[in-house]
Amino acid sequence: MAIREIRLNGDEILRKKSRVVEEVDDRIRELLDDMLETMHKYNGVGLAAPQVGILKRVIVIDLYDGNPPLKLVNPVITKAKGEQEVEEGCLSFPNQYAKMVRPEEVVVEALDENGKKVKIKAKGLLAQALSHEVDHLEGILFVDNMLPGTLEYVEPEESK
Fold this sequence. Notes:
Helix content is 21%, strand content 32%. It has 160 residues and is an alpha+beta fold. It has one domain (12-159): Peptide deformylase (Peptide Deformylase). The strands form two sheets. It has a five-stranded antiparallel beta sheet. The longest helix has 16 residues, at 26-41. The protein is globular and about 45 Å long. The protein starts with 25 loop residues before the first helix and ends in a 7-residue tail after the last strand.
C-alpha cells in the first residue's frame, strides 16, 4: 500500500467525469487499498479516485464506527429520500467547510473489491458521505452544492 498525493482545489482533474471500471482486478484492489490508506492518513471519511488523480469510478468510505470501510467500484445512487442540512468538508479543500443539503437516505448499487454486486441502504452520515463521493465521480465538488455564504476556513490545530 502507498500514500497517494491528494489533488487540491483548482486541479482540473477534479472537474472531469470518471470512467466506468470494466474489470475489478489487482490494480483496482491496489488503488482501493492506497486510497483507504491515504484517506486515513489525512483523517478523511471518504475519498474518490479523482482526488488522487485517477479518473475511475472508485470510492472508499470509513466512518470509524466499528464497521469495516467501504471499498466501492462503479457506485450509483439508485434512490434518494428526504433531506438533511449538513456541514461538510473535503480533503481536496483542506480546512474549508460549508453547509449544504444532502439526502437523508440513499440506496447505492456498486461492485465490491472482488467484483461482487452490492446494494447499500444508508442514512445520515453514510448517506452524506456516499453522496459526496459519488458527486466527485461526476466532477461535482462540495462547493458547487453549498448553501450561499456558508464556506468558512478553519485554522489547522498545529498552527494555532
